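Section 5.1 Outputs to date
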Amino acid sequence: MNSSKLTKERSNRISAAIFMAPAIIFMIFLIGIPLIQVIWDSFHAKSLTNPTLNGFVGLDNFKKVFSDTLFVNNLKNTVVWTVLSVVGELLLGLTVGIALNQKIRGRTAFRSMIIVPWIVPIAVAGLTWTWMLNPDYGIINYLLVKTGFIEQSVYWLGNKTTALLTVTLINIWRTFPYWVISILAGLQSIPDDLYEAASIDGASIIHRFFNVTLPGLKNVVTTLIFMHIVWTSVNFDFIWITTEGGPNYASETLPIMIYRYAMKNYDIGKSSALSVVLIIILLSIFVCVPAYRFIKKKMDEVRVNG
């Protein structure tokens, strides 16, 4: 009996491995080999315009990246861009998601329309916002001047103090529908009985939100936050389409810097080194956060038991 059970388990594992093999092979060629190539190039001199420039240089590429006067500025821009985008998407996604989960007239139509910013191609969205924010003929400046919010047109994407924040707001507008859809799905999984019980106990809307809604959305929100930290921090196309990292590097992030190293300076070694640095930064976040939560949990258990 046990032998038959073991044989069946072994057969299931073999079948699972066979079905997973194409996907694993695809991921190896799509991600694994390019990643190994990037790590390899980061320790070598490599140029697109000078084939004779090659050979192992150790940590020299990393030293050049860290000594670049723009590295700290671009790292700061990356952090600001990522944090503000994720926080803005979270707050807006929660607000709209909860609102669209209520029994209101036209809820289906609103749910259908909310996805529009997400499905619009990035190139189209970026160019459209660039035109709308143009200081000469943009509708945004026209409306702000007419309503008295500003006295004269502002070059939002061409001003050093407003470029990064403006691109961040545009990114929030485009991405928050994804949060809304995911949060709506999470809200459907919360039993109505919990809300009814909380209401009977006299819990206010705020108490129900913090004690029923948020705990029920914990897994969904945590997954979204981690996903969008990665997606936003490595985002290239949206910033490039709107500002190209300008003016004067005011909105340049690490992905834009990697592109500049590779496609403007043709220095594959430095671009690969900076790519490895960005990977290490993201990996450290995903390792340190779970590690901190695990250690904190163990310390709380010791404190309770002690």
